[in-house]
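Q: Sequence in, structure out?
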Amino acid sequence: MGKSGQNQLFHSRLSIIHSLSWTINPKLERFLLQYDMIPVLQAFGKHMHTDSRSAYCSNLRTIFLIIFMLTGCATQQPISEADRLAHWQLHRGKLAELTRWQFKGRIAIQMEKQGWTASFHWRQDQQDYLLRVFTPLGRGNYEISGNADGAVMQTANNSIVHADDAETLLRDNLGWYIPSSSLKYWVRGLPVPGKKNAGLLLDQKGRLAELSQSGWLVRYSHYINSGEYELPTKIIMQNNNLKIRLVIKHWQTSL
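A: Exactly. Output:
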């Protein structure tokens, strides 16, 4: 069939769906077109009467939702535990080699009855790091740069403060108790090397789903592909006193 004939067939099928659009939601519409279910729809349409539309509507939705779910189940077979562990070892090894990266996102911190939100940017180049915090409501911006030898903060009023690490600067100047030395691993979906894990769970693709380490529970709910890496975009970190939500909007793995 030529291109013009294919376009006519597509628009013909689409018009059939739209003529009965009160029975079809957008997800089922895409399914009908993808799996060529138009003849089934037409069969229902021939036997449909105005006074029984609500019953047919309910039945039609149920039938296509069942088909849709069965099709998804048929194409996504769960992998074995051995395969998950093998995928995790490959994934973990690749992430461990990623030492130059940056991300932009938002952070929300909840401690007892206090809470803070801010835009949060992190750039890591081997041992050197640069953190930027953009606080709302005119509270100003903060910048921390450092490495294993120490850290320096430029505060919202342009003061310069020195400390041993970023964790100390965030705590003393913003009141944020963030384990930054561990966070540089956790944000990549890695446990901190050399520290004992109280628990580690993997998702179906062999990536980190949950981690208990150093008194923190870290949960991952979404990953994206960035270059050759799979990196988390939604992370929740929690201990007995503090809850941190980190949503990463953009990853960059080549500096």
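The chain has two domains: 3-75, 81-252.
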